[in-house]
Amino acid sequence: MSWPLSAQDGPPPLRDYAIDVWTSRNGLPHNSLRDIAQTPEGHLWFATWEGLVRYNGLDFTVFDRSTKPGLRDNGVGALFVDRAGALWISDSRGNVTRRGTDGRWQVFEHAPGAPEVLIQSMQMDSHGRLWLLYEGQGIGSLGADGTFQYQKPPADVPMAMSFTKLVVDAQDRVWVGTLDGLVVRDNDGVLRRAPESFGLGRGLVWPYRAPDGVMWIVAGERVYRMQDGLPQLQHRLPGVMHITAMLQDRHGDLWLGTENQGLLRLSRHGLERLPNGLSLPGGRVVSLREDAEGSIWVGANGGLYRLRETLFSSFTERDGLSGDYVRTVLEDQDRQLWIGSANGLDRRDAQGRFVPVRLHNSGGKTPSVLSLAQDHDGDLWVGTFGDGVFRLDSHGRTLRIYGTADGLPGGNIRAMSVDRAGAVWAGTQKGVVRIDRSGVHVPDLPGMPGGLITAMTHDADGALWIGTIEGIKVLRGDHVQSIDLAPLGGGRSVFGFQQIGDAMWISSDRGLYRWEDGTLARVGLEQGMPVDTVFQLVPDRVGNVWISSNRGVLRTDMAMLNQVADGRAKRVEVEHYNEIDGMANSQANGSSGPSALLRQDGTFWVVTAGGLSMVDPLRLQRFRERLAPPAVIENVLVDGKPLHWQGSDHNRIPGGRRLSVSYVGLSYLMSERIRYRTRLAGLDNGWIERGQQRSVEFIGLPPGDYTLHVSAAHPGGSWSDSEAVWEFTVEPFLWQRRSVQAIAALLLLAGLVALYRYLINRYKASNIRLARMVDEATRDLQAQTVNLQALNQEKTELADRLAVQAEQFGRQAREDALTGLPNRRAFDEALARDFARSQRSGHPLCLVVLDIDHFKEVNDQHSHSVGDVVLVEVARVIASACRDSDMPARTGGEEFTLLLNDTRLAEAAQVCARLRGLFHDHPDWAGVPGLKVTFSAGLVELDAADRTPMLLYQRADRALYRAKSEGRDRTAIG
């Protein structure tokens, strides 16, 4: 039976999938994966012979007998996620473990009388009973109330040859696969062979229940679907033996794993096998799983594999190209695609096949092709590496070869363009030549370039634009105009031209330039481009601009690009694509042409060092609509020790501790590109973007209630609504507790009352004595006056001491407990104050944000106590380099800031240089011989665009991360 066609917007053919591979070299404890599951929060779980593995897209976490919580046995047999989201794990000794959504583990050890063998499969029926398949020894069930029942099979039922598949259907019947036919436990509780009327035969037969509830049965090379209680043959797959796993994906397509023939798919494209070069290693496919993002996970005997749909399609030698090092691509008038590479020329026919075009140089070898062009007669012109220019007809037959004998300079022909008269202009290593029916002509005009030509095109007015390694020449009639790129950003080498409207866009070694109405504008690294060197800019029909480069393909918006070039916007937002997105190679090729193009069908094609890559811009929207990854908190450390925070509604943290929280966004498509932001309610006023940082640390939080929010986003995508939230309380020190403060106040008041009463009594006694002896009373009165003055002085001193103590309490709330520097709160207040003062007065203000390089390695290699000493010494060095007007602060972990009032950027850079010298000169940090400590810093000066202190801080923070990415131990100026 043929496979019905699905919607045209369904999945692409298998050749447009990328395969990612993980083995024990990448962190898996074992290469054989028996089962795969995904829990509702997004984690993937793998069953191996050496434990249970959790995967978050970046890291594998192993649970086995040595971990806490742990398993009863390392050999995990099966996984099952129930309707409540709990994960069930079986092992090779008959035990079952349940991991609840709150992270709590519950073990159900094998019951007396039950087999102490591997549980191969688990499924749950509508009553909450968990059915268990014991290897070769029957089935069992674990009720929702914890009761257990074991059922030994009759002698005539081949359960001793059971396969790894057990299914519970909608009627709560249990289906079991064996190597000798199908076994069914009907509602009468009896295990028996499937009816002979099913026609399934003996041998390997096993069931599969799809996510939509449909029952499938695999018997040899046949695939059945259960309809009206009977199996109906859907597919016969001759030559496909021993199907071992099945998956019906969200599109309704069937994926089939085999014993030794890899992975197959039944889809609207027919029966598909992985193309050459994408096949899985030999060995059985044991398990299949589709994750929440549509990727297909394959557990095999040789490792873990993931198939994911890619945005780009790529074509290489395995698809018929003569060579993978592709230099140029051209679509002719008949919509044929011509591809030039280091191994010659290919033509792509109407069936999508690549056909080599026979070209031979004087030595009989195939020339390397660098450039292509088509004239008005339909002839194809081919520029080569040292073998001249070939003229071909539309079928690829050679009509003529132009070489040095015809007056063509020797060397490379990297660019060609056809003028209105039909003449072909070719760029050589010694300038430009014009080729027409009469031969080769070298223009003899003042100002024409005489060196290597790297790009050429004719504009709408017929002018010839010539790109060289020293700028641009424009030939208008008999006049040559020079355009020097160097004064604006330092551009020299030109790699491509693209006319859009009245503007000519120029690709160069310093980004993009736009020439419009005699004015040059630039969009480069400083305006948000992620790379300096770009080769070709190509606009599509839906507003995108695609730009090839040595580090992949960039995509941005045409309107945004013009806004930045006009000065109406400061930065351009760019999406970056490479091999992860399906490109054959992230290194696109330049200095040849065309190196990228938009075909008449709207697809964008680009040449690379690893083949030819293509993307349909209309598919881009499907990738943009990908849901933002849910964020989860993975672990919490208090002073470096794990805190068991899951399952508790509220956590109480002693005051003065260092709190570290690690989190992750659960997406498996581009996990390393996920962006994060955090907000600590009770401390932060808003969200703080963390880039790709996957942890946050708080030191010396003031007492109070806090709620940490974590959100994640894909590059260029929106922030996830599925936040990770954790509530906790920081307990006060003894002297900070209100009860202690209230008792102290009462004791003070009682002392004052007692003192007052004592003074009154003394005063009365004095009056009595005064009545007896006036003279003596006078002397006593004078003595009492002196005493009263002394007491008053004591009271004044007591009040002063209380004021000093209050001042100390206030200072401690704004002082870092470890280093003695101002803390984040004090820094934020100073930044807001100095920011406002600088805006009012116009005085300069500079901010330095610095981070200790590789500080985690100090803690890991020398202990946290050594790390604390290093932080104290760092603070002392920073303070010693500061002036009285500067304000250093420790704002968290290994991060410090330096607020420089009335300081220009150049002077602040000198401060950073002096501070770096002090670091380099500091011997044996923390007393550890040979321990060296460096820092990376971001330096910015307040300008008019910094409307708030936070914007100034964010600029410094971005400069800091740039300093880190450029190698650390340096200061980047933002």
From TrEMBL:
Its EC number is 2.7.7.65. Signal peptide: none annotated. Keywords: Coiled coil, Membrane, Transmembrane, Transmembrane helix. PROSITE patterns: GGDEF. The keyword Transmembrane applies. Pfam families: GGDEF, Reg_prop, Y_Y_Y. Residues 774-808 form a coiled coil. The chain crosses the membrane at residues 742-760. It is an enzyme of class 2 (transferase). Residues 843-974 form the GGDEF domain. SMART domains: GGDEF (SM00267). This is diguanylate cyclase. It comes from Stenotrophomonas nematodicola.
